[in-house]
Amino acid sequence: MNFTALRKFLIPETIFGIGAVDLVGQYAEKFGTKKPLVVTDAGVVEAGWTTRVMESLAAFDIHGVLFSEVTPNPKTAEVMAGVAVYTAHECDGIVAVGGGSPMDCAKGIGIVVSNGGHILDYEGVDKIIIPMPPLICIPTTAGTSADMSQFAIINNTERKTKITIISKTIVPDVALIDPQTLMTKSQYLIACTGMDALAHAIEAFVSSAHSVMTDVHALEAIRLVHGNLLDSFKHREDMELKAKIMLGSMQAGMAFSNASLGAAHAMAHSLGGYNGLPHGECNALLLPHVVDYNFSAEPERFRIIAETMGLDPRGMSASEIRSWLIKSLTDLRSALGIKETLSSKGIRSSDIPELSDKAVLDPCLVTNPKAANKRDIQIIYEEAT
Question: What percentage of the chain carries pLDDT values higher than 90?
Fold first, then answer.
């Protein structure tokens, strides 16, 4: 590893722990915000977290404007609807409360509010010129890490694919990470988002853009998520376990936001845009197959991953480590209740060429440790089907 190579490392101001959600009013006041758009979804509203955010804002005489018209895999139309609400109410900042969908939608709204045009104008890397309004993110899932990252993923419903927007201008100003928000999530959502966090960490560690600064966070994320996800899934009321998973998700976000990702996420983005499958579930179904494909490119780094997951690799061949790693990921996925295949989710063989066409264009594929062309991606999809 080159310890002297130039690398940057970018994350928001981060507050972690019980009660972080109640600091939103204090931080909004610091930004001089008087009327933020509060971007969320119906499930978060029902769970009571949006009310709690509104109350914290009101305590500082800040009047939030609610925008809760966000659905899973946030769509371009939802972003533009949020822009209209922001403009009509003359808002001056954004608070995102929820999982990856509200946070990515909030980023999209901020991009268009400041730069004009349509959200599709900003697909790609470093297309945003003017910084967004102040953005405070309050994640309520442990997986997407949109509160940490310089990524926004938006569903282009016309093309039936997700677009990726990457820019340091969309890194949130503040992330308020409160483990107690996980207590209202379904077990299956905890499973899927946890597998997403694990995929973030693994892909960041073997990414061609990894560095000494991202490696430490990626490995700690693997240790925390792999070591605690199943127990957290089984023991819903254990706050300490929830905190460990939330911390692991945060560490994974620090890693992948700076090292980027790989084929699993490129393929998951294509799947999610094509038929609306939950992003974490897509990653869970694809990850073992992508690890199998990538192993030969980075056998030593995958050995370190396996060791971090609990394997004693002494005396084992690379092939044996590879088999153990794939089995471990598959067993974890199954133990979490994610037992299906892509075919059971409605993906047909005839869909794979189109899915592959879109996946090979995803920016996440650029940093995959092993070059992958359309046929390579097709084979991985076929194996997962």
Answer: 91
